[in-house]
Amino acid sequence: MAPSAAAAISSILLLALLHPAAATAARHRHRLGASLLAAAPNVSQPPTTFFEVDRPIRPPRGSSAGPCSTLLLSGTFGATYGRPPVTAAYAPPACLAASRAGGGGALALAVLEWSADCRGRQFDRIFGVWLSGAELLRSCTAEPRPNGILWTVSRDVTRYAALLAEPGEVAVYLGNLVDKTYTGVYHANLTLHLYFHDTPPQPPAQQQADLIVPISRSLPLNDGQWFAIQNATDVQSKKLAIPSNTYRAVLEVFVSFHSDDEFWYTNPPNDYIQANNLSNVPGNGAFREVVARVDGEVVGAVWPFTVIYTGGVNPLLWRPITGIGSFNLPTYDIDITPFLGKLLDGEEHDFGFGVTNALDVWYIDANLHLWLDHNSEKTTGSLLSYDASGLDLNVNSEFSGLDGQFVTSAIRHVSATGWVKSSYGEVTTTFYQRFRYENSNVFSKNGTVQITNQTIDAKSGIFTKDATAVLLSEELHKIFPLYIYTGTTDKVGDEYSLDSLVKLGINEKKTSGGKLGFLYSSLHNAQTGRGTMRVKKNLVVSGLGKTHQVYKYVGTDGCYFRDVSSRNYTILFDRSDDSCSKGAYSRASTKLNDQPARRKLLVNKL
């Protein structure tokens, strides 16, 4: 997904035909929206419903059966690129105000729902939702069909309870282009659903932050409220002072990558680009990381999941099952409690973000979640230990002409320990991150074939203790596997075929022990997609896309399983189960038919 003008996209696609390596080194050049087909489907067909496979958000036991729902905003997004966000005044719903005043049960669950439709031709567009400057949702639109599409995104926003309780302003930015070619206009509703406890939860629910401070740009703007990181030296920041009675602080970071870095994990090194005299091919190698700093010191990092948007690699893969994280982009938490001793002085401090090896453009902002001691006016603290040794990055390159292999590996460790004294006593907190990265990019057949194989391994942990006991011990381990094959073949004049195979996933394990007891969860979320498309004069004239996804979640809070497969807008099968039955999980496999698909052409049905 690229926030650029349509003319620029057309020139990039043409370039892919002129330079063989360009068709593999920068996969955004194959972002030929399936809505741009030479032959359009029958507009009398009903709209297609798109969806991202995820665990359903359900209210906890003992909460109200039905939600208290409030429409926050209804908007139309036509020619909105480079224009101010759509805004609406926000007032806390009466049911929430009554709950906080003691006239009802405590808030159990808050869900933000985005529902939208679109008809015509359009590329995928990134968008964000903010409340009083704090981002609540980062998402990507689906690419429409002439007969129309529908989709819904739901996000658990319970952690923003303090923000939801105060009046403010909702802002939505969706930069869209509309002209004679790109006709799709997005119509969207944004709704807040609230559930409340009928009785006090047992065990007590985890306490949400008392204050949420946005680290983003302020309105008015002709853009989203995110920061735009444009290169490797660009650091965007905001100064703010935190309340003097803070005893815990967590940064929640929103990240998305676009334009030249939409497929950063496929980018070749600069020496390959220079040696082959290639132009307009994104470089800087295949490693990126987001670095968070406070007053110039590294406090944590984000090695982001490789979200593939709904027009990425081969748009026919994501119909109607979209890529993991594309509708609800993940956020990343960095606990900065150990650093509070430096921040509790009443002065403003600089919170900044940069991206290692970045090309234009990365959209980044953050919410600072703060827990306040209501029994004292001031807390105190001190940083006991801190280690943020530099990034260990290695790149091995071997190439001859347009063919070659590039192997990239990286390691980073960050850890900090500090104490904070409040009315709850003196509590010592340790936060750590350990990252490992492996990436291989292989170019063959004169640069017309590229294979990317990558693994991101991220571990983090939080430990808090007082003088007598461990209060919290939490560890999170995430592994992001990725495999992409793309090959350009059968080039005749201004026509060519693009074959693609994509495998991506999230494997996550989380354990937590403390006052709330022991909690555990395990997630295995895997997608495999295979497709082909025939392109003539930058239009997809025929093609095939097939996707299979298996989602398995097991935890102390329940289970969820789904096994679903699609082919060119049609669901082949869809099985789900939330009973925690092992038999349901054993049936699943993400293996697809390995027969080549490149010559299976479906005109008029895409």
Features:
single chain, 606 residues, mainly beta, 11-stranded antiparallel β-sheet, 5-stranded mixed β-sheet, 7 helices, disordered C terminus
Give a description of the structure.
The protein has 606 residues and is mainly β. Helix content is 7%, strand content 50%. The chain is globular. The C terminus is likely disordered.
Layout of strands and helices, then pairs:
Elements: H1 6-18, H2 22-25, E1 48-50, E2 68-77, E3 86-90, H3 94-100, E4 107-118, E5 126-131, E6 134-140, E7 149-156, H4 161-164, E8 168-174, E9 186-196, E10 211-215, E11 227-229, E12 236-240, E13 246-257, H5 270-275, E14 289-294, E15 297-302, E16 331-335, H6 340-343, E17 349-356, E18 362-372, E19 380-387, E20 392-400, E21 403-422, E22 425-444, E23 449-465, E24 470-492, E25 495-514, E26 517-536, E27 539-555, E28 558-567, E29 570-577, H7 582-586
Parallel strand pairs: 1-7
Antiparallel strand pairs: 2-9, 3-8, 4-7, 4-9, 5-6, 5-8, 10-18, 11-18, 12-17, 13-16, 13-18, 14-15, 14-17, 19-21, 20-21, 21-22, 22-23, 23-24, 24-25, 25-26, 26-27, 27-28, 28-29
